[in-house]
Amino acid sequence: MRRLLYIVCALMCALLISPQSAEAQKVAYVDMQYILKNLPQYETANEQLSMISKRWQKEIDALTQEARLLETNYQTEQIFLSPDLKKKREEEILQKQNEALELKRKYFGKDGELFKKREALIRPIQDEIYQAIQEIAGDKKYDVVKDRSADPALIYMSSKLDISDQVLQKLGAL
Q1: Backbone torsion region of residue 141, taken as left when φ is above 0, otherwise alpha when ψ lies between -120 and 50, otherwise beta
Q2: Tens of pLDDT, residues 36-91
């Protein structure tokens, strides 16, 4: 009896609440990958990041190569070296390897230079995109704007809900 009373109360609450929650939300979608691909400033920023990344990688590779060369030389001369000289050469090798690792961390680590550079170059572009999306959403009274390129569960979407081209227009890219 108690269970039946609980079920009836739950159904009545659901019926009372449902008209309010049945009010449809206006939803729109954007494809951030499409938008970014069509923004020249994003391509320029990516090219700059790529060039910087390659330059830094060459520095790291050069240090790594120096460490390998030192190690190769050490391996061939090891038999002729005194214990003190062996220790000195091993320390030199280790120091070069550590320099390469430290440089790699400095440039490509979690909070490294590449991360900071990407943040400095890409963040303003993203902010500009988000501002344009907010303005369009405000003008057209959208309650929700989702990124369809980031939603793997999205199977189908009507093209009339896609506002990516409107965003690009607002940004002056179309």
Answers
A1: left
A2: 999 999 999 999 999 999 999 999 999 999 999 999 999 999 899 899 999 999 99
Radius of gyration for the chain, computed over Cα atoms and rounded to the nearest angstrom: 29
Average pLDDT over all residues of the chain = 86
What is the SS3 assignment for the chain?
CHHHHHHHHHHHHHHHHHHHHCCCCCEEEECHHHHHHCCHHHHHHHHHHHHHHHHHHHHHHHHHHHHHHHHHHHHHHHHHCCHHHHHHHHHHHHHHHHHHHHHHHHHHCCCCHHHHHHHHHHHHHHHHHHHHHHHHHHHHCCCEEEEHHHCCCCCCCCHHHECHHHHHHHCCCC
**Tokens at residue 150, please?**
């980031």
- Give the number of other Cβ atoms within 10 Å of residue 168's Cβ: 18
Is there a contact between 63 and 94 (Cβ–Cβ < 8 Å)?
no
- 29 DSSP assignment: E
> Can you give the pTM of this predicted structure?
0.70
Which residues touch 55 (CB under 8 Å, ≥6 apart)? none
